[in-house]
User: What shape does this take?
Amino acid sequence: MLTEFGKAFIFLLLGVIFVVLGLFGAWIFRPHRPYPEKNATYECGEEPVGSAWIRLNVRFYVIALVFLIFDVEVAVLFPWALVYRQFGLFGFLEMAVFLVILFVGYAYVWIKGDLDWDKPKPEISVIKRTIVTAIGMDSKHVFVDDDEMVE
Amino acid sequence: MEIIQKLFANELIVSILLSLLPLVFIIAYALVVLYTEMKVAAHIQDRVAYMRTGWHGLLQPIADMLKLLQKEDIIPDKADKLLFRLAPIIAFVGTYAAYAVLPFSSIYIGSNINLGAFFLVAVGSLVVVGILMAGWASNNKWSLFGGVRSAAQMISYEIPTAIAIIIVVMITGSLNLQDVTKFQDGGIGNWVVFGGPSPWLQKLMLMPFTIITFFILFVSSIAEVNRTPFDLPEAESELVQGFNTEYSGMRFAMFYLSEYANLFTVSAVGIALFLGGWSSPFGTFMSGPVWGIFWFVAKAYIFVLVQIWVRWTLPRLRVDQLMYVSWKVLTPWLFVCLLSVGLILVL
Assistant: This one.
Protein backbone atom coordinates (compact mmCIF):
# COMPACT_ATOMS: atom_id res chain seq x y z
CA MET A 1 0.00 0.00 0.00
CA LEU A 2 1.55 3.23 -1.15
CA THR A 3 0.61 6.35 0.78
CA GLU A 4 0.64 9.85 -0.69
CA PHE A 5 3.82 10.58 1.22
CA GLY A 6 5.32 7.46 -0.34
CA LYS A 7 4.61 9.01 -3.73
CA ALA A 8 6.40 12.18 -2.65
CA PHE A 9 9.33 9.99 -1.61
CA ILE A 10 9.38 8.45 -5.10
CA PHE A 11 9.88 11.96 -6.44
CA LEU A 12 12.89 12.45 -4.16
CA LEU A 13 14.37 9.13 -5.28
CA LEU A 14 13.76 9.89 -8.95
CA GLY A 15 15.60 13.19 -8.55
CA VAL A 16 18.67 11.35 -7.25
CA ILE A 17 18.46 8.65 -9.93
CA PHE A 18 18.11 11.21 -12.73
CA VAL A 19 21.22 13.14 -11.68
CA VAL A 20 23.27 9.98 -11.15
CA LEU A 21 22.20 8.55 -14.51
CA GLY A 22 22.89 11.86 -16.23
CA LEU A 23 26.37 12.03 -14.78
CA PHE A 24 27.00 8.41 -15.72
CA GLY A 25 25.84 9.07 -19.28
CA ALA A 26 28.18 12.02 -19.55
CA TRP A 27 30.99 9.92 -18.08
CA ILE A 28 30.74 7.58 -21.08
CA PHE A 29 31.02 10.35 -23.67
CA ARG A 30 33.33 12.86 -22.11
CA PRO A 31 37.13 12.95 -22.27
CA HIS A 32 39.22 12.28 -19.16
CA ARG A 33 42.46 14.22 -19.44
CA PRO A 34 43.22 15.93 -16.13
CA TYR A 35 46.53 17.62 -15.40
CA PRO A 36 47.60 19.77 -12.41
CA GLU A 37 47.03 23.12 -14.10
CA LYS A 38 43.56 22.13 -15.22
CA ASN A 39 42.63 20.92 -11.77
CA ALA A 40 43.91 24.06 -10.06
CA THR A 41 41.39 26.35 -8.42
CA TYR A 42 40.16 29.10 -10.74
CA GLU A 43 41.26 32.54 -9.72
CA CYS A 44 41.12 34.68 -12.85
CA GLY A 45 44.08 32.86 -14.39
CA GLU A 46 46.46 33.67 -11.56
CA GLU A 47 47.87 31.07 -9.21
CA PRO A 48 45.42 30.79 -6.32
CA VAL A 49 46.50 32.46 -3.08
CA GLY A 50 45.77 30.39 0.00
CA SER A 51 42.62 28.48 0.75
CA ALA A 52 39.15 29.83 0.20
CA TRP A 53 37.91 28.48 3.51
CA ILE A 54 38.19 31.76 5.32
CA ARG A 55 36.19 33.55 7.98
CA LEU A 56 33.07 35.26 6.72
CA ASN A 57 31.39 38.50 7.57
CA VAL A 58 29.44 38.08 10.81
CA ARG A 59 26.38 39.70 9.21
CA PHE A 60 25.59 36.45 7.45
CA TYR A 61 25.17 34.76 10.82
CA VAL A 62 22.98 37.56 12.13
CA ILE A 63 20.75 37.23 9.07
CA ALA A 64 20.64 33.48 9.60
CA LEU A 65 19.55 33.98 13.23
CA VAL A 66 16.85 36.47 12.30
CA PHE A 67 15.68 34.06 9.62
CA LEU A 68 15.50 31.26 12.16
CA ILE A 69 13.17 33.27 14.40
CA PHE A 70 10.89 34.17 11.53
CA ASP A 71 10.94 30.69 10.08
CA VAL A 72 9.81 29.15 13.35
CA GLU A 73 7.08 31.75 13.48
CA VAL A 74 6.02 30.84 9.94
CA ALA A 75 5.95 27.17 10.90
CA VAL A 76 3.65 28.05 13.81
CA LEU A 77 1.42 30.15 11.56
CA PHE A 78 0.78 27.35 9.04
CA PRO A 79 -1.53 25.17 11.19
CA TRP A 80 -3.21 28.30 12.53
CA ALA A 81 -3.95 29.54 9.01
CA LEU A 82 -5.33 26.14 8.06
CA VAL A 83 -8.11 26.18 10.68
CA TYR A 84 -8.47 29.95 10.77
CA ARG A 85 -12.03 30.11 9.44
CA GLN A 86 -13.26 27.73 12.13
CA PHE A 87 -11.70 29.71 14.95
CA GLY A 88 -13.16 33.10 14.16
CA LEU A 89 -12.34 36.16 16.20
CA PHE A 90 -10.74 34.16 19.00
CA GLY A 91 -8.15 32.77 16.61
CA PHE A 92 -7.43 36.20 15.27
CA LEU A 93 -6.83 37.73 18.71
CA GLU A 94 -4.75 34.78 19.81
CA MET A 95 -2.43 35.13 16.83
CA ALA A 96 -2.40 38.91 17.13
CA VAL A 97 -0.89 38.54 20.61
CA PHE A 98 1.71 36.17 19.21
CA LEU A 99 2.52 38.52 16.36
CA VAL A 100 2.83 41.51 18.68
CA ILE A 101 5.41 39.65 20.75
CA LEU A 102 7.25 38.78 17.57
CA PHE A 103 6.95 42.36 16.43
CA VAL A 104 8.78 43.57 19.55
CA GLY A 105 11.72 41.38 18.58
CA TYR A 106 11.48 42.59 15.01
CA ALA A 107 11.50 46.23 16.12
CA TYR A 108 14.51 45.52 18.34
CA VAL A 109 16.45 43.96 15.47
CA TRP A 110 15.48 46.85 13.18
CA ILE A 111 16.53 49.59 15.63
CA LYS A 112 19.74 47.78 16.53
CA GLY A 113 20.62 47.92 12.85
CA ASP A 114 21.03 44.19 12.27
CA LEU A 115 18.85 44.36 9.19
CA ASP A 116 21.13 46.93 7.56
CA TRP A 117 23.94 45.83 5.35
CA ASP A 118 27.11 47.85 4.81
CA LYS A 119 26.25 50.73 2.56
CA PRO A 120 28.73 52.38 0.26
CA LYS A 121 29.53 55.88 1.58
CA PRO A 122 27.76 58.51 -0.55
CA GLU A 123 30.29 60.50 -2.45
CA ILE A 124 30.03 64.25 -2.27
CA SER A 125 30.07 65.71 -5.73
CA VAL A 126 32.71 68.27 -6.60
CA ILE A 127 30.09 70.84 -7.55
CA LYS A 128 28.28 70.52 -4.25
CA ARG A 129 31.51 70.83 -2.29
CA THR A 130 32.53 73.91 -4.22
CA ILE A 131 29.19 75.58 -3.60
CA VAL A 132 29.32 74.86 0.11
CA THR A 133 32.88 76.13 0.42
CA ALA A 134 31.92 79.22 -1.53
CA ILE A 135 29.05 80.15 0.76
CA GLY A 136 31.28 79.44 3.74
CA MET A 137 29.35 76.69 5.45
CA ASP A 138 31.14 74.10 7.50
CA SER A 139 31.05 71.06 5.30
CA LYS A 140 31.21 68.77 8.33
CA HIS A 141 27.70 69.66 9.40
CA VAL A 142 26.28 69.38 5.96
CA PHE A 143 27.62 66.03 4.84
CA VAL A 144 27.19 63.68 7.74
CA ASP A 145 26.22 60.15 6.98
CA ASP A 146 22.92 58.93 8.39
CA ASP A 147 24.72 56.41 10.57
CA GLU A 148 27.13 58.96 11.96
CA MET A 149 24.28 61.24 12.92
CA VAL A 150 22.88 58.62 15.30
CA GLU A 151 26.15 58.42 17.12
CA MET B 1 0.73 -8.37 -23.44
CA GLU B 2 0.05 -10.07 -20.14
CA ILE B 3 3.27 -8.78 -18.72
CA ILE B 4 2.27 -5.23 -19.55
CA GLN B 5 -1.11 -5.74 -17.95
CA LYS B 6 0.56 -7.14 -14.86
CA LEU B 7 2.92 -4.19 -14.75
CA PHE B 8 0.07 -1.72 -14.86
CA ALA B 9 -1.76 -3.62 -12.16
CA ASN B 10 1.16 -2.97 -9.83
CA GLU B 11 0.50 0.21 -7.92
CA LEU B 12 4.18 0.96 -7.32
CA ILE B 13 5.15 0.79 -10.98
CA VAL B 14 2.20 2.95 -12.02
CA SER B 15 3.09 5.62 -9.52
CA ILE B 16 6.74 5.56 -10.58
CA LEU B 17 5.65 6.07 -14.18
CA LEU B 18 3.33 8.88 -13.13
CA SER B 19 6.16 10.47 -11.18
CA LEU B 20 8.32 10.41 -14.29
CA LEU B 21 5.90 12.65 -16.20
CA PRO B 22 7.09 15.91 -14.59
CA LEU B 23 10.69 14.94 -15.38
CA VAL B 24 9.85 14.57 -19.06
CA PHE B 25 8.00 17.85 -18.83
CA ILE B 26 11.00 19.61 -17.19
CA ILE B 27 13.38 18.55 -19.94
CA ALA B 28 11.01 19.58 -22.73
CA TYR B 29 10.19 22.83 -20.97
CA ALA B 30 13.87 23.61 -20.28
CA LEU B 31 14.66 23.37 -24.00
CA VAL B 32 11.78 25.70 -24.84
CA VAL B 33 12.51 28.22 -22.15
CA LEU B 34 16.25 28.32 -22.91
CA TYR B 35 15.44 29.21 -26.48
CA THR B 36 12.80 31.73 -25.43
CA GLU B 37 15.08 33.39 -22.94
CA MET B 38 17.89 33.87 -25.44
CA LYS B 39 15.54 35.13 -28.12
CA VAL B 40 13.71 37.52 -25.80
CA ALA B 41 17.02 38.79 -24.43
CA ALA B 42 18.36 39.32 -27.92
CA HIS B 43 15.31 41.18 -29.16
CA ILE B 44 15.23 43.39 -26.07
CA GLN B 45 18.85 44.28 -26.80
CA ASP B 46 18.20 44.67 -30.53
CA ARG B 47 20.10 41.53 -31.56
CA VAL B 48 18.88 38.37 -33.28
CA ALA B 49 20.51 35.58 -31.19
CA TYR B 50 20.81 32.04 -32.60
CA MET B 51 20.22 31.89 -36.34
CA ARG B 52 22.42 29.09 -37.67
CA THR B 53 21.28 25.83 -36.05
CA GLY B 54 17.99 25.02 -37.69
CA TRP B 55 15.25 27.49 -38.59
CA HIS B 56 15.92 30.64 -36.55
CA GLY B 57 18.24 28.61 -34.33
CA LEU B 58 15.52 26.29 -33.08
CA LEU B 59 17.97 23.41 -32.62
CA GLN B 60 20.38 25.43 -30.53
CA PRO B 61 19.19 24.18 -27.09
CA ILE B 62 19.68 20.59 -28.28
CA ALA B 63 23.15 21.46 -29.58
CA ASP B 64 23.94 23.04 -26.24
CA MET B 65 22.79 19.92 -24.44
CA LEU B 66 24.96 17.69 -26.62
CA LYS B 67 27.90 19.99 -26.07
CA LEU B 68 27.49 19.85 -22.28
CA LEU B 69 27.32 16.07 -22.47
CA GLN B 70 30.77 15.94 -24.08
CA LYS B 71 32.48 18.39 -21.75
CA GLU B 72 35.16 17.14 -19.41
CA ASP B 73 34.10 17.05 -15.79
CA ILE B 74 36.68 18.88 -13.71
CA ILE B 75 36.94 18.48 -9.95
CA PRO B 76 39.59 20.84 -8.54
CA ASP B 77 42.33 19.16 -6.51
CA LYS B 78 41.70 21.36 -3.52
CA ALA B 79 37.94 20.84 -3.47
CA ASP B 80 36.04 18.85 -0.89
CA LYS B 81 35.35 16.00 -3.28
CA LEU B 82 32.43 14.33 -1.53
CA LEU B 83 30.44 17.54 -1.02
CA PHE B 84 31.39 18.70 -4.51
CA ARG B 85 29.80 15.58 -6.00
CA LEU B 86 26.80 15.68 -3.67
CA ALA B 87 25.83 19.32 -4.25
CA PRO B 88 24.19 19.04 -7.71
CA ILE B 89 22.23 16.01 -6.57
CA ILE B 90 20.81 17.83 -3.55
CA ALA B 91 20.01 20.95 -5.56
CA PHE B 92 18.15 18.93 -8.19
CA VAL B 93 16.35 16.71 -5.70
CA GLY B 94 15.03 19.78 -3.89
CA THR B 95 13.83 21.16 -7.19
CA TYR B 96 12.21 17.98 -8.42
CA ALA B 97 10.51 17.12 -5.13
CA ALA B 98 8.54 20.36 -5.44
CA TYR B 99 6.92 19.01 -8.62
CA ALA B 100 5.28 16.30 -6.52
CA VAL B 101 2.71 18.72 -5.19
CA LEU B 102 2.04 20.84 -8.28
CA PRO B 103 -1.50 20.22 -9.55
CA PHE B 104 -0.98 20.06 -13.31
CA SER B 105 -4.61 19.18 -13.89
CA SER B 106 -7.70 18.24 -11.92
CA ILE B 107 -6.79 14.58 -12.43
CA TYR B 108 -3.01 14.77 -12.18
CA ILE B 109 -1.01 15.65 -9.09
CA GLY B 110 2.14 13.74 -8.23
CA SER B 111 1.38 13.27 -4.58
CA ASN B 112 -1.94 14.42 -3.18
CA ILE B 113 -0.68 15.12 0.34
CA ASN B 114 -2.67 17.44 2.54
CA LEU B 115 0.48 19.40 3.42
CA GLY B 116 1.29 20.49 -0.15
CA ALA B 117 2.23 24.13 0.39
CA PHE B 118 4.20 23.33 3.54
CA PHE B 119 6.05 20.58 1.69
CA LEU B 120 6.93 23.12 -1.01
CA VAL B 121 8.48 25.51 1.50
CA ALA B 122 10.38 22.63 3.08
CA VAL B 123 11.91 21.16 -0.07
CA GLY B 124 12.57 24.67 -1.38
CA SER B 125 15.11 25.03 1.42
CA LEU B 126 16.91 21.97 0.14
CA VAL B 127 18.03 23.97 -2.90
CA VAL B 128 19.70 26.47 -0.57
CA VAL B 129 21.60 23.62 1.06
CA GLY B 130 22.77 22.38 -2.35
CA ILE B 131 23.97 25.81 -3.42
CA LEU B 132 25.71 26.51 -0.14
CA MET B 133 27.34 23.08 -0.35
CA ALA B 134 28.55 23.75 -3.88
CA GLY B 135 29.99 27.11 -2.89
CA TRP B 136 31.80 25.72 0.10
CA ALA B 137 33.06 22.50 -1.48
CA SER B 138 34.63 24.23 -4.49
CA ASN B 139 37.28 25.85 -2.28
CA ASN B 140 37.18 28.86 -4.54
CA LYS B 141 36.77 32.40 -3.27
CA TRP B 142 34.19 33.33 -5.88
CA SER B 143 32.19 30.22 -5.22
CA LEU B 144 32.23 30.71 -1.48
CA PHE B 145 31.03 34.29 -1.69
CA GLY B 146 28.46 33.37 -4.27
CA GLY B 147 27.21 30.46 -2.19
CA VAL B 148 26.98 32.44 1.03
CA ARG B 149 25.34 35.39 -0.64
CA SER B 150 22.91 33.08 -2.33
CA ALA B 151 22.01 31.42 0.95
CA ALA B 152 21.55 34.77 2.70
CA GLN B 153 19.34 35.99 -0.13
CA MET B 154 17.26 32.86 -0.43
CA ILE B 155 16.57 32.59 3.28
CA SER B 156 15.73 36.29 3.47
CA TYR B 157 13.16 35.95 0.70
CA GLU B 158 11.80 32.70 2.00
CA ILE B 159 10.01 34.57 4.80
CA PRO B 160 7.92 36.76 2.44
CA THR B 161 7.17 33.74 0.24
CA ALA B 162 6.01 31.65 3.18
CA ILE B 163 3.84 34.42 4.64
CA ALA B 164 2.27 35.04 1.23
CA ILE B 165 1.41 31.33 1.08
CA ILE B 166 -0.05 31.55 4.60
CA ILE B 167 -2.36 34.38 3.55
CA VAL B 168 -3.75 32.23 0.73
CA VAL B 169 -4.11 29.29 3.12
CA MET B 170 -6.15 31.50 5.44
CA ILE B 171 -8.53 32.41 2.62
CA THR B 172 -8.82 28.93 1.10
CA GLY B 173 -8.52 26.88 4.28
CA SER B 174 -6.34 24.20 2.72
CA LEU B 175 -2.66 23.46 2.28
CA ASN B 176 -3.25 21.09 -0.60
CA LEU B 177 -2.65 22.96 -3.86
CA GLN B 178 -5.25 20.80 -5.60
CA ASP B 179 -7.90 21.92 -3.10
CA VAL B 180 -6.67 25.50 -3.32
CA THR B 181 -7.17 25.35 -7.09
CA LYS B 182 -10.60 23.73 -6.79
CA PHE B 183 -11.57 26.51 -4.40
CA GLN B 184 -10.88 29.02 -7.17
CA ASP B 185 -12.52 27.06 -9.97
CA GLY B 186 -15.27 28.72 -11.97
CA GLY B 187 -13.93 31.76 -13.75
CA ILE B 188 -11.60 34.68 -13.37
CA GLY B 189 -13.71 36.30 -10.63
CA ASN B 190 -13.08 33.43 -8.24
CA TRP B 191 -9.30 33.71 -8.30
CA VAL B 192 -7.71 34.46 -4.98
CA VAL B 193 -5.89 37.44 -6.41
CA PHE B 194 -9.35 39.05 -6.82
CA GLY B 195 -10.49 38.02 -3.37
CA GLY B 196 -11.65 34.47 -4.04
CA PRO B 197 -15.28 33.29 -4.24
CA SER B 198 -16.56 35.34 -1.29
CA PRO B 199 -19.56 37.64 -0.88
CA TRP B 200 -18.97 40.76 -2.95
CA LEU B 201 -18.38 43.12 -0.01
CA GLN B 202 -15.78 40.83 1.53
CA LYS B 203 -14.27 40.34 -1.89
CA LEU B 204 -13.95 44.07 -2.42
CA MET B 205 -12.26 44.48 0.94
CA LEU B 206 -9.91 41.54 0.37
CA MET B 207 -8.88 42.57 -3.12
CA PRO B 208 -6.28 45.28 -2.32
CA PHE B 209 -4.53 42.98 0.13
CA THR B 210 -4.54 39.94 -2.10
CA ILE B 211 -3.15 41.99 -4.99
CA ILE B 212 -0.33 43.31 -2.79
CA THR B 213 0.36 39.78 -1.56
CA PHE B 214 0.49 38.47 -5.09
CA PHE B 215 2.91 41.19 -6.13
CA ILE B 216 5.14 40.47 -3.13
CA LEU B 217 5.07 36.75 -3.90
CA PHE B 218 6.11 37.56 -7.46
CA VAL B 219 9.04 39.73 -6.31
CA SER B 220 10.26 37.24 -3.76
CA SER B 221 9.90 34.34 -6.17
CA ILE B 222 12.29 36.09 -8.56
CA ALA B 223 14.71 36.43 -5.67
CA GLU B 224 14.21 32.79 -4.70
CA VAL B 225 15.44 31.62 -8.08
CA ASN B 226 18.42 34.03 -8.04
CA ARG B 227 17.54 35.94 -11.17
CA THR B 228 18.11 39.55 -12.10
CA PRO B 229 17.47 42.00 -10.45
CA PHE B 230 18.32 39.66 -7.57
CA ASP B 231 21.13 37.71 -9.23
CA LEU B 232 23.92 38.77 -6.87
CA PRO B 233 24.96 35.17 -6.22
CA GLU B 234 25.86 34.85 -9.88
CA ALA B 235 26.98 38.39 -10.51
CA GLU B 236 29.12 37.71 -13.57
CA SER B 237 31.02 40.96 -13.41
CA GLU B 238 32.20 40.55 -9.83
CA LEU B 239 31.84 36.89 -8.86
CA VAL B 240 32.51 35.21 -12.22
CA GLN B 241 29.65 32.70 -11.85
CA GLY B 242 29.20 32.52 -8.12
CA PHE B 243 28.65 29.11 -6.61
CA ASN B 244 29.07 27.18 -9.86
CA THR B 245 32.40 28.70 -10.99
CA GLU B 246 34.23 25.41 -10.60
CA TYR B 247 31.51 23.23 -12.07
CA SER B 248 31.73 22.04 -15.63
CA GLY B 249 30.08 19.59 -17.96
CA MET B 250 27.11 17.62 -16.74
CA ARG B 251 27.36 18.79 -13.14
CA PHE B 252 27.00 22.36 -14.30
CA ALA B 253 24.12 21.30 -16.52
CA MET B 254 22.35 19.89 -13.48
CA PHE B 255 22.57 23.21 -11.66
CA TYR B 256 21.38 24.97 -14.78
CA LEU B 257 18.47 22.59 -15.22
CA SER B 258 17.55 22.93 -11.58
CA GLU B 259 17.57 26.72 -11.90
CA TYR B 260 15.19 26.65 -14.85
CA ALA B 261 13.03 23.99 -13.26
CA ASN B 262 12.81 26.18 -10.18
CA LEU B 263 11.73 29.06 -12.35
CA PHE B 264 8.75 27.00 -13.43
CA THR B 265 8.05 25.85 -9.88
CA VAL B 266 7.78 29.35 -8.45
CA SER B 267 5.60 30.41 -11.38
CA ALA B 268 3.39 27.35 -10.95
CA VAL B 269 3.05 27.99 -7.23
CA GLY B 270 2.17 31.61 -7.93
CA ILE B 271 -0.59 30.70 -10.36
CA ALA B 272 -1.89 27.76 -8.32
CA LEU B 273 -2.23 29.99 -5.27
CA PHE B 274 -3.46 33.20 -6.85
CA LEU B 275 -4.48 32.76 -10.46
CA GLY B 276 -6.64 29.68 -10.32
CA GLY B 277 -4.07 27.05 -11.36
CA TRP B 278 -5.60 24.74 -13.95
CA SER B 279 -9.05 26.31 -13.82
CA SER B 280 -10.25 28.10 -16.91
CA PRO B 281 -10.66 31.89 -16.68
CA PHE B 282 -14.00 31.61 -18.53
CA GLY B 283 -15.83 29.44 -16.01
CA THR B 284 -17.06 26.21 -17.60
CA PHE B 285 -15.95 27.22 -21.09
CA MET B 286 -12.74 25.41 -22.16
CA SER B 287 -12.48 23.60 -18.85
CA GLY B 288 -11.81 19.94 -18.17
CA PRO B 289 -8.83 17.75 -17.31
CA VAL B 290 -7.03 18.21 -20.64
CA TRP B 291 -7.75 21.90 -20.86
CA GLY B 292 -6.54 22.01 -17.26
CA ILE B 293 -3.04 21.03 -18.32
CA PHE B 294 -3.18 23.65 -21.06
CA TRP B 295 -4.26 26.44 -18.70
CA PHE B 296 -1.77 25.46 -16.03
CA VAL B 297 1.19 25.38 -18.38
CA ALA B 298 0.06 28.46 -20.31
CA LYS B 299 -0.42 30.57 -17.18
CA ALA B 300 2.88 29.42 -15.72
CA TYR B 301 4.60 30.10 -19.02
CA ILE B 302 3.27 33.66 -19.11
CA PHE B 303 4.60 34.08 -15.60
CA VAL B 304 7.99 32.76 -16.73
CA LEU B 305 7.96 35.15 -19.69
CA VAL B 306 7.34 38.09 -17.36
CA GLN B 307 10.29 36.97 -15.25
CA ILE B 308 12.48 36.80 -18.35
CA TRP B 309 11.29 40.24 -19.36
CA VAL B 310 12.10 41.62 -15.91
CA ARG B 311 15.51 39.99 -16.03
CA TRP B 312 16.55 41.75 -19.21
CA THR B 313 15.03 45.08 -18.24
CA LEU B 314 16.16 45.87 -14.71
CA PRO B 315 19.71 46.34 -13.43
CA ARG B 316 21.10 44.34 -10.53
CA LEU B 317 20.47 45.49 -6.96
CA ARG B 318 23.21 46.16 -4.43
CA VAL B 319 23.54 43.80 -1.46
CA ASP B 320 22.28 46.35 1.06
CA GLN B 321 19.31 47.18 -1.15
CA LEU B 322 18.54 43.49 -1.44
CA MET B 323 18.38 43.04 2.32
CA TYR B 324 16.46 46.28 2.68
CA VAL B 325 13.78 45.17 0.23
CA SER B 326 13.26 41.84 1.92
CA TRP B 327 13.38 42.73 5.60
CA LYS B 328 12.15 46.30 5.69
CA VAL B 329 9.66 46.49 2.84
CA LEU B 330 8.20 43.11 1.93
CA THR B 331 8.01 41.54 5.40
CA PRO B 332 6.24 44.47 7.18
CA TRP B 333 3.81 44.85 4.28
CA LEU B 334 2.98 41.18 4.44
CA PHE B 335 2.28 41.39 8.15
CA VAL B 336 -0.10 44.24 7.43
CA CYS B 337 -1.76 42.07 4.77
CA LEU B 338 -1.86 39.05 7.09
CA LEU B 339 -3.61 40.93 9.90
CA SER B 340 -5.97 42.76 7.55
CA VAL B 341 -7.00 39.61 5.72
CA GLY B 342 -7.48 37.89 9.07
CA LEU B 343 -9.70 40.68 10.33
CA ILE B 344 -11.75 40.82 7.13
CA LEU B 345 -12.31 37.06 7.18
CA VAL B 346 -13.73 36.97 10.70
CA LEU B 347 -15.89 40.07 10.37
